[in-house]
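New to this. Please check both lines:
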Amino acid sequence: MIKKIIPVLVFGMILLTACNLPGRLPQGTTTTVNPVLTADITQPSDGLTNFTPSAVIRLFPDGSGDYASLIQAVENAPVGASIILATGTYELTDFLDIEKSLTITGAGMDQTVITTIIGEDAIGFYGPGTFTLSDLTIQYAGTSPSDVFLVDNGTVFISNCRFTGGVEDTGDAAIGYGVGLFIQGTSDGIIQNSQFLHNQSGGLVIIDDSSITIQSNTFTINTDSGLTLRGTYSGLVEGNTSTYNKFHGIALMDNTSATLQSNFCSNNENSGIVFFDNSVGSAKENESTKNGFHGIAVLGNSHPLLEENTCSENTYDGIAYFENAYGTARGNNCLNNVGNGLSAADNSSPTVESNIFSYNMLSGVSFYPGSAGSAQGNTCAFNGWGIYVEKGANPTLGNNTVYSNTTADILDER
C-alpha cells in the first residue's frame, strides 16, 4: 500500500517518505456475508455524489447490521455501494483500506464515530474512484504516529465530518504523520462543513495535483497549520475558519494557485495566511486578525493578488512581503496592527494601490532596504508614520492621501 511522500515544509511541516501499510487479510480468507442489500437508492439531497450507489449496507455498533463490522462491509461491498452507520462508536481492529468507489454516511459528527488505535495511516481511500464521506467523526486514539485519514488519488466528497487525534512522528528518523486529513496524488471534489482539530501536525494537508473545493470548514488547535496546500493545488478555498493553530491559519506552498475567498483566520501563532515559494492565485475578502505575526505574509517568489482583505490587530504587520515576493495589493483595509499596515522587505517589490492603512503603531506603509515596487492611491491616516521609505529602498510613490499621522506623514530617507 502507498504511503504519502512530501518534501520538507517551511515553518513546521515535516519530511514524509514512502512506507508500506500492513494489515491486509491474506488472499483466500473467507468472510461470512449477509446478502441483504437494497438496489438503486436515490442520490443524497446534499448533491455531493455524482453516481447512484448500487446497494445500501446498514451497520450498527453492536454488529447486528448487514455485516458484523465496518471492515467486513467495505471488503464485501460492491463498487458504488452506500454504507450507512447508525449512531454509536465503531472501533477498528485492523487496517481499513478502501480501494473502490463507496459512500459512508453516519448519523452526525457528534453521533457516529469511527475510531482506531492502529497507527501508520490505518484508515484510507486509495483511488482512482469516487469516495463520499459524511456525517461522522474519524478519531485516531492511538499513541504511535499516524494521520487520521489518508486519501491517495481520486474524487472525494466530504461533508459534516470531524478529523481529530493525529499523532506526529518525532526524532531523527521521523517520516511524518499527525495530519487530520492528508490528500496526495491527483484529486478533486469538495470538502465542506467539516472540522479539523487537535491534530499534532496540520489539520488538512493537500499536495500534488488537486482542485478540491474547500468550503465552510473549521481548522483549529492543530500543532502545525490549520490548512496547508502544496504542489499545484488550484482550487477554491472559501468561507473557512482557521484559528488557534500553532503555525499558520492557511499556508500555500510550491506552485499553488488557489483562490482564497472570505476566509477568517485569527489567533494563529504565526501568520493568518502565508504564501511561500512560487505561489500565485488570489486572496480576496478574507479577514485575518490577532495573529502572532502577520495578517497575510508573502515570501519566496510568490505573487498573489491581495484584494479587499481586512488585516487587523496582528502582532506585526497587516500585510508583509519578503524575499523576492511581488504582486498587487489592492483595496485592502489594514488597521490597528502593532507593526505596519503593509511592509516590503528584502528584494520584494509589491504594487500597493488604493488601500486604507490606519491606526497602525509603526507606519501605514513601510519600504525597507532592498525593496522596490510602488505605492499609489492609498490612504494612510492615524499611524505612527504615514509612509516610511528607509534608505536603500526604492519604491515609486504617487497620489497617496496621507494625513494625521503621529510622527510624520511621509518619511523618505532616500
